[in-house]
Prior knowledge:
- By secondary structure, the chain is mainly alpha-helical.
- Helices cover about 60% and strands about 0% of the residues.
Amino acid sequence: MTxxxxxxxxxxxxxxxxxxxxxxxxPEATNSQVLFQExxxxxxxxFSAKYLKKKRAANELLDKxxxxxxxxxxxxxxxxxxxxxxxxxxxxxxxGGENDVWIGKTLYRMPYMTNDVYLELAKLDYNNCQAxxxxxxxxxxxxxxxxxxxxxxxxxxxxxxxxxxxxxxxKDEETRKGL
Length: 179
């Protein structure tokens, strides 16, 4: 190993010792993407793997930028097979926030990515899309008139009644926030 490589290796160790105990996104990314045959990368991979195992053992893998398959509460939604729009709605809390600071090689703000205006527009767009699909669904229901499709009409009616119940309960913002 040359002297410059040794310096880089030493800096890497110093940086690793200063990693915040709160952030796990960077080690997770390092661990999942480092597959090269260089010593410094191998050390980074080993460190991040050990760090993530320690965090998992302490049940501290709570970072909004990590996507895991077993997030409490979300696993059931994935197994129910909800539409992709519903999954998108679940991700809204992770975006926005004008005061978010991103951590990379440096700390920086991303005004075009973490912007409360864009978050609000995304929510409005989602609601408009949902309303449009709801109207299309009503039109589809009206076209089912054949006698042999009576069970289908019954299923549509039950689903519509359930939607009306949910819609009336979530109409005002106070009720939504209360849940």
